[in-house]
Amino acid sequence: MQDPSRQADDATHFEWSLTNNEVDNLIEVEDLTKYFPVRGGVLQRTIAQVKAVEGVSFNVRRGETLGLVGESGCGKTTIGRMLVRLIDPTSGSIKFDGHDILQAKGSDLKNLRREMQIIFQDPFSSLDPRTPVGDSIGEGLLVHGVRNSRERHKQVLAIMHKVGLEDYHAKRYPHEFSGGQRQRIGIARALVLQPKFLVCDEPVSALDVSIQSQVLNLLKQLQREFGLTYIFIAHNMSVVEHISDRVAVMYLGKMVELADRIELYRNPQHPYTQALLSAIPVHNPKIKRERVILKGDVPSPLNPPSGCRFHPRCPVAVDICSKEEPPLIDLGGGHLCACHLRQPR
Q1: What percent of the chain has pLDDT over 70?
Q2: Entry pTM
């Protein structure tokens, strides 16, 4: 039986979906590709390319949370960093609120950074150990023209209160905080500029399970209060189910499935998604779930397989899978899947 809190959450989600028939996209990504050069020899010439992300397209609706999942090395974090212009793509386009952010330079790019922020996976390494956390949180305000120290301090304390920190914490250093508190500091630093969009790059993976739920609930509360839009990157499928409105599944630089959260968890279509979901622990020991065991390791992005990149590990692969790459098609209701077995005949 489904617990009452999950039923209430699903009801809210359905209401959200019904009232958003007129889709308002904040982020529009088309054919996004990123290759990293591998250099070698005395002259350090490019001898190969790591195909981290290749031909990925998706939209993020205003006010929603899009979960991005997949194994390590599938390109999740690379996509997140490209969305906030920490790295530039090899090709493709990224539109934020209707504007092509890849064309932004100088002051235009600086102004854009107020609207798009990132929360990093490791809250300790993302903070300067020699700087009080209050100064770290307020640094963005200083860069963006808030020169009055009193006004800056006031805004820092206000956002610290929002994330559950106290005034005296502003004068402390990162090593004096727990992991959960450091992540709250990272969230405060991202929110102090009042952005519209946040990339959450595995923000709870380094935290204890009890602290994870606190941070997730905080992110949901802040989203409701400030009208934020999230890309939530994670490995943990249970965490993604808790916080996401839609979920995109990545495999070796390609997006293989994208669907509404409820639809994807109840009716996964791609064999890779089915394998990921089968690995979620079941809380009731009386319920038996059939595990999908994948053979072998993830192929190297230096030399990805031909055709469908998942076919060497796929338990239901057929001949065409090794020869032709399946397109990402709509199976109905916005449920996208890239699998030859799901293609119309």
Answers
A1: 93
A2: 0.88
- Strand, coil or helix: what is 239? helix
Number of Cβ atoms within 10 Å of the Cβ of 10? 13
Cβ-based neighbours of 15, under 8 Å, separated by 6 or more: none
- Whole-number Cα distances in Å, 296 to 111, 115, 321: 46, 42, 17
Q: Rounded to whole angstroms, how far apart are CA atoms 128 and 132?
A: 8
CA distance 286 to 67: 30
Instruction: Return the structure tokens found at 317.
Output: 């692969």
Question: Could you say which architecture CATH assigns to the domain 4-342?
Answer: 3-Layer(aba) Sandwich (3.40)
Task: Please list, in sequence order, all residues whose beta carbon lies within 8 angstroms of the beta carbon of residue 93, skipping any fewer than 6 positions away.
Answer: 28, 29, 30, 31, 32, 100, 102
What residue segments make up the domains of the chain, in order of their start? 4-342
What letter would DSSP give residue 4? H
What distance, in Å, lies between the first and last C-alpha atoms of the chain?
Answer: 38
Length of the chain: 345
Count Cα neighbours of 26 within 13 Å in the Cβ-side half-sphere.
Answer: 19
Give the integer Cα–Cα distance in Å for 72 and 92: 23
Give the model's pLDDT for residue 345. 57
Count of beta carbons in the 10 Å neighbourhood of residue 154? 12
Rounded to an integer, what distance in angstroms lies between the CA atom of residue 119 and that of residue 55? 25
3-state SS, residue 148:
coil
- Beta-carbon contacts of residue 29 (< 8 Å; ≥ 6 apart): 56, 57, 58, 59, 79, 83, 92, 93, 94, 95
Q: Which residues contact 238 (CB under 8 A, 6 or more apart)?
A: 280, 281
199: nearest Cα among 63, 70, 77, 24 = 77
Sequential DSSP letters for 173-199: -GGGS-HHHHHHHHHHHHHTT--SEEE
- Greater model confidence, 15 or 305: 305
